[in-house]
Each structure stands twice: as C-alpha cells, then as structure tokens.
Amino acid sequence: MTARVFGVELRDELRAIVREPTSLFFSILMPVGFFVLFNLLYGHEVTQGISAGTAMVATFGTYGVITVAALQPGIGVAQDRDLGWLRMKRVSAVPIGISLAAKATAALLYGVGVLALMGVTAAAFGTLHASAWQLVRVAVVLLLGTVPFTLTSVAVGLRFRTNATIALLNALLFPLAVLSGLWIPIQFLPKVVRQIASFLPTYHLAQLGLSQLSQGSVLIHVLALLVTTAAAFGLATLAYRHARI
Prior knowledge:
Largest sheet: 2 strands, antiparallel
Number of helices: 11
Strand order of the largest sheet: 1-2
Distance between the termini: 24 Å
C-alpha cells in the first residue's frame, strides 16, 4: 500500500515539474544551457590536468543537481501548503512523509536527467575525456551530495509562502554557484572568493565530483558535507515541527 501511494505521488511530482514552465526553465533548461555555452567557449582548454569540458561535468553538474534539489522540493511544499494540500494529506491516507519523499525523489530523478544531458553534450562537442566508470562515480557523488540542499529546500517551503520560497531559494542558490567556482574555475577567482568558497557546501560537492575525474584528497570535502547534512536535517526537522500546515 505504501509503495503504491509513493508511486502515485512520485508520478504526480514528475509531471508537475514538466507542466510548470518556470520550474522547467530554471531547474533544467538553464543549467544545461549554461553548460552548453561555456563548453562551446572553453571546453577544449586544459585545467588541473583535464579538459575544461570534462571538469565542467563536475562543476556545472554540481550546479545542475543542486538547482533541481534546492528549488523543486521547497517550492512544491510551499505550493501544497498555500493550496491546503498538505493539510488535506495530514488527515487522509497519504502520510506527509511520503509526499515529501516523493518530491525529493522526483528532484533526484530530474538531477539524473540533467547530468545525462551534460555528459551527452560534452561528448558531442568532443570535450569529454573520461571513462564511463568515472562518469558514473561523478553522478553518484553529486546525487548523494544533494541531500543537504533538498532538506534545506523543504525547510524553507515549510516556513514560507510560495513566492517568498522562490525568492529565498534563488537568493541562496546563485551566490553559492558563483562563489563556489561552479561557473568559473575556482583558481581564476579572487583570493577572497577562494577563501569564502572553502566554507560553502557547494564548493566541497564540486571538489568531490572533480576528485572522481582526477586525483585529489576527499576527506575534508566529505566531512564538510556531512556537517552540512546534519545541520540541514536539524533545520528541516524544526521547520516541520513548527510548520503551519
């Protein structure tokens, strides 16, 4: 019974993203569009021993998956709250936990699609120089790394109305992308920005992705993301307990 309810909820969430032009553009088309543009401009250059096009699969891939994870669940929760759907589900046979899990899973699946589009694009441009196993590792790392962003997104959606949720999440997302070197390689950014980046979870996730393509230490990045996940879980738990559903 629970699996069937989850399947129905998941199907509805997957359709909702496609039916909403704004969500489709900002969550999927824009990250892939940026990736295509920067790949055309700089994809054949070499950075950190690998082609920029290959590195972008990790850095722009990070931007792509966190865009979906940071926007979709929270906006969906806020919309359901505004429409009264969460209140209805609380008294129905659909546990709110299943509904939230379906939103998170839908975002994860769209994240897989974003990464696949980027990989295919880089291969088509001839800028992708990585084995299939490396690409699988990058995808797994990036998708697992979306957990704290999904939790934060849900926390915001549980506390704010739809328009405020959209504004807040975008206000968080874009500075994180710029300051973490997801669009421009971190070594080309000013020193003060590089210092700020070391405190940002997006930077650590991108570095974990890059470490799957070239050699590099991963321990500090894993620890940073674990701490971020614990903090995001606490934030989401508090938001749920105090949410006006």
